Every structure is written in structure tokens, then in C-alpha cells.
Amino acid sequence: MAEGRGNRNGHVLVPLAALIRRELRSEKMEKPSVRYGCAAQSKKGEDYFLMKTDCQRVPGNPSSTFSVFAIFDGHNGNAAAIYTRENLLSHVMSAVPRGLGRDEWLQALPRALVAGFVKTDKEFQSRGETSGTTATFVIVDGWTVTVASVGDSRCILDAQGGAVSTLTVDHRLEENVEERERVSASGGEVGRLSIVGGAEIGPLRCWPGGLCLSRSIGDMDVGEFIVPIPYVKQVKLSNAGGRLIIASDGIWDALSSEDAAKSCRGLPAELAARQVVKEALKTWGLKDDTTCIVVDIIPPDDLSTPPPPPKKQSKLRALLFRKRSHDSATKLSKKLSAVGIVEELFEEGSAMLAERLGNDECNKQSTSGLFVCAICQVDLAPSEGISVHAGSIFSISSKPWQGPFLCADCRNKKDAMEGKRPSRVKVV
């Protein structure tokens, strides 16, 4: 039976099922295999993780499958970590416009991740609970890896050639000078714990609250200058694949990124995760919750064994990040893939929503014809929406009547995070 039939204009009409089969065959040929493993040792019971490999960009279409891996390291209780694990993915997906092709979907992810993180934080704070959590959230779609993070859990990439790269930024006040300056400019105070006699001890903390991190989800008792806006990095791996190691600070306090990667090379993902935890405990002991996820992105023709420890290679084979050329993206991608180079597609760490949400050339509308808040996705009448750029001093080209738009509550949240006025999060 023929797969398609002609119409009166002479064009061949192909049934949807046939298109899906074709796409599925194509994806099977081109998409890598994803294998993963997790290991953990609990000290406080505040580490949580998420591993989900059956997510779909298009519901019901198996060829649109992508995977999500995440670690949430709670503090001052586990409520924020549990809530974030249960809600962050759906909040991110609700912020992605419907009907996008795969490439457009990947391009929309960084903005959707920002919206999803802020919405999760806003909703959790409305519950009136004071715990907080880090979040390192990884989306793997084919060869493209998108990572969003707040706090000091970390994701590293061990790619072709044995070069190790960090795909996150630690938001610890002790090490991150830019974040210290941002917190101070937004109304927080940064300093060490003072003891009797005026001596200062311990790491740098943010006051009020005494948190060592400058970004997290939750922590409503600390101050709105502790923001949930994630650092986001998106890369495209070469066709040699690579290994992701995602872990809480129980690992990174004990091991460097290079040591963690080296400790588990040549092992399958599940054993590799156990080995990283074992090495961390051997070095540091069980002083904190210690969780590790290892994700192997493996070329279709190399599924039998994990990648062996790398041999010495030339500089050309070493891992390099290259900005994508908009003029010759396809040619560049093929060249980079041929020499085992990882291509950087997106990187942004600003804590300013006006910069992270960008400009809407055409305002996003819901099916009801109303405008939609870019953060919480509630419907807005045209007279209700407040531009994310209204009153912004960070972009001369921004126009206060240009989208994206925020509802009054989300606009208030934005101003509070930037130190413009106290937050008025509604507690239910």
C-alpha cells in the first residue's frame, strides 16, 4: 500500500503516522543513546534527585523524547527540595510556546528555564515555609545539553579527548565576587559570622539569614536578593558523545571536577556514580548529603562499552567551546563534530529578568486571546500586563510597551529581587 496519495494540486499528502515513522527512523539513526546511574549517601536527608527519560516535546510522539536529570540540595529542611523536584519540570515546560519544531524548542529553553525557576520559587514562598534548595537541572535532547542551575550543586562534562568542562557556576558568596557585589547592591549585607570578642569565623554569608549562597529556590526568610534566576548554558556535543556528572556539594567539597571525572572513566554509568561517591567519602567522609548522577551520551554505533580512559591527544582533539556562527551554522557544526569539539550554543548568568526574558517581537497570547504573564503563565487583559522592561535602566533599546509582560505579583517579585522595594509575596 502506498504511503501517500495525491491531491487535486498534484502534491503528495503523507499521513501523520507515516511522518512520525519517518522521523522516528531518522532520529534513531542520528540520536545518541542515553545511559545513566545514580548513587547517594544521606547525612541530613535533604538531597533529592530527578531522572526522567520519557519526556516528550510533542505528547504522543515518541520521536520527540528528551531526558531530564536534576539534583536538589535542600537546606533548613527538605520542603523546598521536594517541592522543586515535583514542580520545576512542569513549570519550565508550561513556559515554552506550543507548536515549535525541535530547533525552535531548544532555542526557547533558556528563557523557559528562567521563567520556570522563578515561578517555582514564587509558588513555594507563598506556602510560608522557610527552607531552601539548590537546583541543577539538565535537559538532554539528542546531542544538545541544556543546564540551568542555582546554588552550588554542579554539572560537569567529560567529553572527547578527556578535557573536563564545568557547565554550571557556583553561587557561593565566598568564591563568587560578582554575586557578592550584586547582593550588596540589592540591599543585602555580606560578611562572616561574628563571635564574642568581635572575631569573624566561617565562610562569607548573606545577612539577614546567614545563607552562604547568593541564588536558591525558597529561603523566604533570607531576603529577595537571594534570587532563583538560574545560570543557563547550552552546548551541542560532537558525534563522539560525552559524560555528564551532576552532583551535590557533598561531592564537590571533596573532589575537583577533574578528579571526579578521572575517578570513574571506563566504568558504566551506574558503577561510575557509585565510584564518584566512594571517592568523595574516602577523601572527605560523610559530612553532608552526597548525591551523584552520571549520564553517558553514547553514539549509536558505540553502545557496547563505556568510553575508555582517554589517550594523549593533540590540541585539535581537545575539548573547545566555540560560539555558533549564525551565517554558517550547519557547516560549522559539521566541522566541529568532525574534530570532536563541543559547540557552545548559549550562556547567560545575569540576575536581571529584563535581560533574561528578552524582547517579544510579537506578544505571546493564550488561546483565549489574552496576554500571558511570562513567569506564572496566567492570562492578562491588555490593560493588566506590565512590561518586564518598564522602568529598566539596563537597556536603552528596551521599550516599556514591549513584551514580555508580567502580572502585578510577578512584577513585584522582579522589583524585590533587584532591591527596588520589599517583596510582598502572598502567603496562602
From TrEMBL:
InterPro entries per UniProt: PP2C, PPM-type-like_dom_sf, PPM-type_phosphatase-like_dom
Instruction: Provide the alphabetized UniProt keywords.
Output: Hydrolase, Magnesium, Manganese, Metal-binding, Protein phosphatase
Q: Which cofactor does it need?
A: Mn(2+); Mg(2+)
| Domain PPM-type phosphatase intervals | 28-297
Does the keyword field hold Transmembrane helix? no
- GO MF terms on file? metal ion binding; protein serine/threonine phosphatase activity
Q: What is its EC number?
A: 3.1.3.16
Which reaction(s) does its UniProt entry say it catalyses? O-phospho-L-seryl-[protein] + H2O = L-seryl-[protein] + phosphate; O-phospho-L-threonyl-[protein] + H2O = L-threonyl-[protein] + phosphate
Keyword Aminoacyl-tRNA synthetase assigned: no
Top-level enzyme category:
hydrolase
The family annotation for this protein states: Belongs to the PP2C family.
What is this protein's name?
A: protein-serine/threonine phosphatase
Please tell me the species this chain comes from.
Dillenia turbinata
